[in-house]
Amino acid sequence: MKETLRQRIGVDVGRRVSAEEAVEWAAQNEVYYFDIQTDIAPNALESFDESRCSKIREGCEQHGLHLGLHTLSGVNIAEISPHLREAADAYLRNYIDLSVKLGAEWIVVHGGYHFTGCQKIRKQASIDRIKRAVEYAEKQNALLLLENLNGEPELAEVHYMPDNLEDTQEYFEQIQSPNLRWSFTINHAHFDPIGIKGFVEGMDMSLCEEVRVADNNGEYEIHMKPGTGNVDFGEMFRLIESSGFEGHYMNGFGSLDDMLEGREYLLERAVEQGIGINS
What we know:
Elements: H1 5-8, E1 9-14, H2 19-28, E2 33-36, H3 50-63, E3 66-70, H4 84-102, E4 106-109, E5 113-115, H5 119-140, E6 144-147, E7 158-160, H6 165-174, E8 180-185, H7 186-190, H8 195-202, E9 208-213, H9 233-242, E10 248-251, H10 256-272
Parallel strand pairs: 1-2, 1-10, 2-3, 3-4, 4-6, 6-8, 8-9, 9-10
Antiparallel strand pairs: 5-7
């Protein structure tokens, strides 16, 4: 049975609560898609033994929940230095291994960041590292989702990758695999000069597996509750749904309660565009 729009709007739990609590919370609130971040407590990666993994996996199966993992954007996947190169590779492999143990359906990954003077070498290191991770994911039957990150001021020394349409396209041109798809963060796209519309028109939307949602002031990186910034969410739904997108949305702002309330606001904006939310 086709999922409704309500069922497709998930919540980025992150590390706000433990993974076990996240399963119970999602089930109680009919949140069918959620992701967790497993770097540090209460979800430190090394704490997931088989007993813990099986409990979470069985809870998701029982309630019909879809679990994803979300790596930290602060971990520089574009590392070029001794020891750190190997550590960044291991970081992605360990997330892939954990996803298999948990039955997680996707892992959001990032391209890392560069300093102005080493952009070229770090971008290539980033692409090569994600390519290795994708090859490992193929063997483990895991799915990686590459997120478009936020642009920084032009004169900033540090810049995320990929942070614009051209860079996002380049990553997918160089890494072609069914085990790498796109996590489209609309609030990052919103304050890019081309906006959300430019990304939808410029990207191959058949690559899009997830749309990450927050409001934004149109000026700089900030994850705001829908309705408190200037993103036109009705237009967002019109653009994305008309592209043929059938994946899930992921709220990423504020508290868990904020994201539940935000889901209702988003559904109201979809209805205003004539988009059915329960069929």
